[in-house]
TrEMBL record:
Belongs to the CmpA/NrtA family. The keyword Ligase does not apply. It is found in: Endomembrane system. It comes from Alteraurantiacibacter palmitatis. This is CmpA/NrtA family ABC transporter substrate-binding protein. CDD domains: PBP2_NrtA_CpmA_like. InterPro entries: NrtA/CpmA_ABC-bd_dom, TAT_signal. Keywords: Cell inner membrane, Cell membrane, Membrane, Transport. The lineage of its organism: Bacteria, Pseudomonadati, Pseudomonadota, Alphaproteobacteria, Sphingomonadales.
Length: 477
């Protein structure tokens, strides 16, 4: 073992202790030899043969399922002793139920889903996320009709519309719809999806209330200026074209599909709402991980290899990835539509294609590491909009994040890959599980994952301490 790797190993073992890692694979056991640590799950088990080599993983037809497709197509699962079947799911609810019910061993999952399930919001199950699949990858698209209503008022720069576009430009449109006696409707993919929170964040930053949730309410329209509803990702363009919704937030390729069909115009990417925001995770049941530690370690290692392949050579593999994803058993969209956002560019409207090298990040920027602060951010938005009905101290947010996000499992897998020379030690972050505080949001708000209540209190629109939501509106408890 090199001195560099020993340093990495000792640092991460200490980090795990400081962060209070509980059950699972302890990093000290990843190097082999006599320093293996025993725990509820012996670290040695992670280096053995997979307990369950035949796996079925679920996904939704989106570009960011790419790490799973690449892990299968490039042989990374096989290298780790796994025989994997990838199975597309009809929608996020079906996918979630499949993981909880055991029909799926793991899945390409919305980051909010394992958190919400563990909280008991919507359904109750202890799910975990040992790996983040990607950063960025979503956008907000408006119908062509709405775009034509706002475009004359947009500032120009170099002969093109200046970006990012604030939701404030929608306010006259929303008011016009209201005066005509009809709601302004927008779509997102699931009540606890990143897309829901990104769309809400963008609207609220522009002074529009996207509505609050009451207990048992999955619509979240109390006090709303803009009504949000759920539509499965592949159905977004058709729903927009039918006029059922006036815009949506979704992952690719379904924004570019709207451009290609001439029915919509993306107005802001999620990277412009929150720079390098976390997107999907690998989600699975906690009891499955506890019973199959070597299987989980092998699965995570294979996916990390795929993530590295996707970001290697300055995107040199992306053209091949596009061809793979265009197959009907994966995303099934036209290769040109997939390439419009996945190969270092993003098209906002015909004739307006801009560089966007970071639109999809799978490995760089420590994209795979499941940061506690990412989990805390999703929890702050659940509280902000009433999905978490009551106040909680800052410690509660961290405790909940630790139950679900499992950097110990990620580090066990990643450190083995470092030891084997597959990835560089510098590709694994030196961290206590928190990103540095950032203000790289569309509204300039500063976020520190260690201070969630201070963050929640800073929003103009959103629940404040002591407030709760009733059918009549927001009240002080």
């Amino acid at each position: 073992m090199t001195d560099i790797f020993k340093g990495q190993l000792n640092r991460r073992t200490a980090m795990g202790t400081l962060a209070g890692f509980a059950a699972g694979i302890m990093l000290a056991g990843c190097s082999g030899g006599d320093d293996r640590a025993a725990g509820p799950v012996a670290a040695a088990n992670a280096d053995g043969p997979p307990e369950k080599p035949n796996l079925k993983l679920g996904f939704i037809k989106l570009t960011d399922m790419a790490p799973l497709a690449i892990a299968l197509e490039k042989g990374f699962f096989v290298e780790e002793g796994l025989n994997v079947t990838l199975e597309p799911q009809a929608n996020w609810k079906v996918l979630l139920d499949g993981v909880i019910g055991g029909q799926l061993d793991a899945a390409h999952m919305l980051a909010g889903q394992p958190l919400a399930a563990t909280l008991g919001y919507g359904t109750q199950a202890h799910l975990i996320a040992p790996l983040s699949l990607d950063l960025n990858g979503n956008a907000i698209t408006l119908s062509k009709r709405v775009w034509q209503m706002i475009r004359p008022s947009l500032p120009m720069e170099g002969g093109r519309v200046r970006h990012p576009i604030s939701a404030e430009v929608l306010r006259p449109v929303v008011e016009r719809f209201k005066a005509e006696g009809r709601p302004f409707n927008m779509g997102m993919v699931f009540p606890v999806s990143t897309h829901n929170y990104e769309l809400r964040y963008w609207l609220a930053a522009g002074g529009l209330n996207p509505g609050f949730y009451t207990q048992g309410d999955v619509a979240g329209t109390v006090g709303a200026d803009v009504n949000l509803s759920v539509t499965p990702p592949p159905q977004m363009p058709a729903t927009l074209e039918a006029g059922t919704i006036d815009g949506y937030c979704v992952g690719e390729p379904w924004n570019q599909q709207a451009v290609a069909r001439g029915i919509g115009v993306p107005v802001v990417t999620d990277d412009q709402i929150w720079h390098n925001n976390p997107e999907k995770v690998l989600g699975l049941r906690e009891d499955f991980a506890a019973s199959n530690p070597a299987t989980v370690a092998a699965m995570v290692r294979a996916i990390i290899k795929a993530q590295q392949w996707l970001d290697a050579a300055n995107g040199g593999n992306r053209a091949e990835a596009v061809q793979i994803l265009s197959r009907p058993n994966y995303v099934g969209a036209d290769a040109a539509v997939l390439a419009a956002s996945m190969t270092g560019q993003f098209t906002f409207e015909p004739g307006d294609t801009r560089p966007a090298e970071g639109f999809n990040i799978f490995f760089n920027e420590f994209a795979g590491y499941p940061y506690y602060s990412d989990a805390v951010w999703f929890l702050t938005q659940m509280r902000r909009w009433g999905q978490i009905a009551e106040d909680h101290p800052d410690s509660w947010y961290l405790d909940m994040a630790k139950k679900v996000y499992r950097p110990d499992l990620y580090l066990a897998a990643a450190s083995r890959l470092v030891e084997d020379g597959v990835i560089a030690a510098s590709a694994v972050p030196e961290t206590d599980g928190f990103r540095a505080p950032t203000n790289q949001f569309i509204d300039g708000m500063s976020y520190d994952g260690r201070k969630p209540n201070l963050y929640i209190a800073g929003f103009r629109i959103g629940l404040k301490e002591g407030q709760r939501v009733t059918a009549a509106g927001v009240i002080d408890a």
